[in-house]
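MODEL INPUT / OUTPUT PAIR
PAIR INDEX: 1
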Amino acid sequence: MELVSTPLLPEGFKVPASRWTPATQILRHRLESQPYVFAPGVFDPHGAELVMYHGFDAVYLSGYSVAMGHLGTTDMDLYASVEIADVARRVVSALRKFQLTMAVGDPAQGVPPRHLEIPPVVADMDVGYGNVFNVQRTTELYVTAGVAGAHLEDQVMPKRCGHIAGKALVPASEFIAKLRMMRAVADDLGRQDFVIIARTDAVSATEAPESKRGLDLAVERGLRYLDSGIPDLLWCEFPTAERGPTEWFHEEIRKRFPEARFAFNYSSSFKWFNEPDPLTWEELAEMGVRFIFITLAAQHAMARGMNQLLEALHRHRHEGYIELQRREWEEGQPTRSHHQFSGVPYHHLMGEQLGSSRFGRQVDLGLEEAKVV
């Protein structure tokens, strides 16, 4: 890893040189050079920072997660393009800032710098939040936010989560027009390498202009989308975790497009633990899947952790929280010191270098270090 200086760090501290490589290029390189790219699904900047801390290939910003995490509602077009685009903007910005804070470490506490690569962000664009010109606006918001890629789906508006009944499809020609608009906007903004993922919900849609239904319709649509020459990846949303339909879809597509590359949602909606022979990521890669993600990964993990804490507080009051802290420090969780993780040492060092008051050596907390985080 090549390390270089930046004006945003005090003298002597460095960041990976890849900081200035466009995220679109990083994502494309990983898609082409790795068996697959995996991205945990998140809904906020802090979750994205943890994904980055643990060194994952990419960050996936899930629309369902944004609906739950920011609005407390479901994935039925109940948020607008500007809302999710703003979350995407804040996630990208947070990752760039997090790289700086980790590169400083905490000199006062003897915590060494940690040099982290910034993972590219892939975002949910749902159905584009309207017609082709809504797609134009949304794509511009995503590209200028620094998002590396996005997926668009062929449902009508208002759409539904791929695992909620009652889905209907727009004509394939209308969807292809939206894909073309995505490509045109990205190219116009100089991001010809922006990754476009075409998603079809045809397998479980109940309404569509075609007479076919189910997997046959999904294959027909997938072939038409690839015929357009626009998508970098094709994603079929499956209603279950069954192995057979997944294998058949990818086999049928590759009969015409042997080099086709796919995205796959290792969906939180499926009870993978009940599958007798669950698909592995290596098996998916053999089918041509290059981008694997779990839509609600962070949402379920956050909810589980919060439930455990709240139950402990309800039953044991203060002892419940003390036990949480004890586990954090004994297990060495990276977030055990929220000041260090959020970058307080960086702000003090950089503030001092810039000559701003109330930072650096001018600050005397007057607290015993052993008693504070």
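PAIR INDEX: 2
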Amino acid sequence: MKKAKYTRIVLTALLTAVLLLAAGCGSAEKPADPGIEDGTYVATFTTDNSMFHVSEANNDKGILTVKDGKMTIHVSLQSKKIVNLFPGTAEDAAKDGAELLEPTEDTVTYSDGYEDEVYGFDVPVPALDEEFDLALLGTKGKWYDHKVVVSDPVPGDDIHAAAEGSEEPAAEESAGTSEAPELEDGEHKVDVALEGGTGKASVSSPAVIRVSGDNCTAVIEWSSPHYDYMIVDGEKYLPVNEDGNSVFEIPVFYFDKPMTVIADTTAMSEPHEIEYTLTFDSSSVK
């Protein structure tokens, strides 16, 4: 009898220890310390692919929420072509029972006031400044693997204010000259600077300029194939190429001060005209 009683005591003690561990009395079940206090932040959300990114209107920014040691970032994407996300690999996302991230319908506003309807997602963030898996499902029903990083949290919930605060002050415009420098007829090269839009677009520099008498034109190659026309001084110009990045030949009215142009992009859910300036540096002409 005594032996049986002793055995029951030992078994009870062991069972109690197991239950205590399962209940989380140890520290193993505590959420990881995110390193920042609970609250709302504007954070940078970067990916490993140019086709998967935050809407250009939000300049790679999302709203990071930290609560009870857990982090979630809400990001508005560039369109409605990504229908689901999954915090993990594409292989796991395709399995039965996988808990997919469902989209929200977000309205993003560009710097010129244009509004666009896109999909947004609340993405769990395991850690800041560390790459993690985030699979996406496109409209064709196929899952794709991607890596993303969330970084640089700034307290607040105003994405546009945070983006403006991170930009470098614009250089003062040069008084410049309203006429082209004296150039011989033929082709030359000149450094050209682009400003405007979201800051992600660029043009090739130096650019080719062509001079014939009093006429001067520049060959402008964009960093994207999605520009279908440009407007300069009220006149529309179409691309001069069919493949690769969009290329236009436009007039140059003056050097050394910003020249306003409009470029229409088809990269968004709807075509959208964006205002830019081009500044041609006369001292760089070769």
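PAIR 2 NOTE: The longest helix spans residues 2-22.
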